Amino acid sequence: MTRPVATLTRKGARRRRGGHPWIYRSDIARAPEAPSGAIVDLRDASGRGLGRAAWSEKSLISLRAVPLAPDEDADAGWLRLVDAALDRRAQRPPCTRLVNADADGLPGLVIDRFGAGVSLQALTPAAFSRLDAVVAHIAARLSPTVIALRNDSRIAGLEGLPDDKRLLLGDDARVEAPVGALTWAFDLLEGQKTGGFLDQLENHRLAAEFARGDCLDCFTYEGGFALQMAAAGRPVIAVDSSAPALERLAGHAARNGLAVEALEANVFDLLRVYEREGRTFDTIVLDPPPFARNRKAIEPATRAYKEINLRAFKLLRPGGRLITASCSAHMSRNGFEAAVLSAAADAGVWAQIIHRRGAPPDHPVLLTAPETDYLKALFVQVV
Ligand code: SAH
């Protein structure tokens, strides 16, 4: 049987040789004759091979490279890549990202483990059509008590997949798992994304060591930073605009015997009020939602990052500490640091970067896809 082939334009072939795994529809000279989800061979105009890729007819990102050997069976190879990703995380703590999509060579597939629970996203036709095999494999290898599918994402529509959120194994989506010294309750169906954010867990713990004195955690969500800082003995005010998130924060606090002052407010307004009132803090955390959701939003996002960082610098006492993050994939590390730098300059503070952080090693960055380096965090000391 001849295998389906996608022929790329000169530009597409150049981009593929440059290592980026994504091929846009406009970079395809001849589309493969294959159903969405098939793994196809990539060729340049002269017929030279450019590796293999997952085909998604409806998506603007129509092909995504998959590091399979030239003659490897695609379905068996997919599971081999899943196993390899799991093996690389063998030493990780109970709450860990096991598969990080393109960065692990598995476009669209995210698998997160929350203690005894597993939650996954299969947001390309290639990942979705192999879902049953992956779920059976994960069930056999990890014996979770519950497996949730979280394809309730905007991306599902872009890829021509159903918006789909349900339990594939078990009947209770709630799991408890240790996060550092705390016990955390996750709801695999109701929590954000796959049930919670795993990408900041190590930064939460570092924040607990880094924090001093009175702490203000802005954009706290369920209190990831706030509760670790409280566990380290700090008085913490935790701010979010979402009442349900703050309710869950209160639940985590009670479960762990911790006290945090939770405040439902818009951070932009609150920082202004605090400035007017002359309120000050020793440690401030800024971990906002992605301000830049596309390239066009980079400029306004830069202004927003600068604004909150400037206000935070003004509220810090001498010797204060700022933990500031951006999870916008479109915001480069340099661009983010430039916004924080300019905030420090306008506030007239002498600020040192003590830690430059990203997501933990279970969220690897693909060297040839800079947008996978989406999480930037700076731990800054004012002297
Ligand atoms: N810091 C959290 C993750 C934050 S996610 C952690 O480490 O786990 C971003 C949070 O910002 C969401 O909970 C959202 O409700 C909140 N948010 C978004 N815009 C806001 C605003 N203007 N003021 C306050 N909270 C906001």
3D architecture notes:
The protein is α/β, with parallel strands linked by helices. It has 3 domains: about 5-65, Archaeosine Trna-guanine Transglycosylase, Chain: A, domain 4 (Roll); about 75-180, Transcription Regulator spoIIAA; about 200-380, Vaccinia Virus protein VP39 (Rossmann fold), CATH 3.40.50. The chain contains 11 helices and 20 strands. The chain has helices at about 10-15, 75-90, 125-130, 130-140, 155-160, 200-210, 225-230, 245-255, 265-275, 300-315, 335-345, and strands spanning about 5-10, 20-25, 30, 40-45, 50-55, 60-65, 95-100, 110-115, 115-120, 145-150, 165-170, 175-180, 180-185, 215-220, 235-240, 260-265, 280-285, 315-325, 350-355, 375-380. The strands form 4 sheets. Strands 16-15-14-17-18-20-19 form a 7-stranded mixed β-sheet, with helices on both faces. Strands 2-6-5-4-1-3 form a 6-stranded mixed β-sheet. The longest helix is centred in the C-terminal third of the chain and has 18 residues, at about 300-315. The model has no long low-confidence stretch (mean pLDDT about 95). The structure holds S-adenosyl-L-homocysteine (SAH). S-adenosyl-L-homocysteine binds near residues 224, 242 and 267. The site of S-adenosyl-L-homocysteine has 18 residues, from helix 7, strand 15 and helix 9.
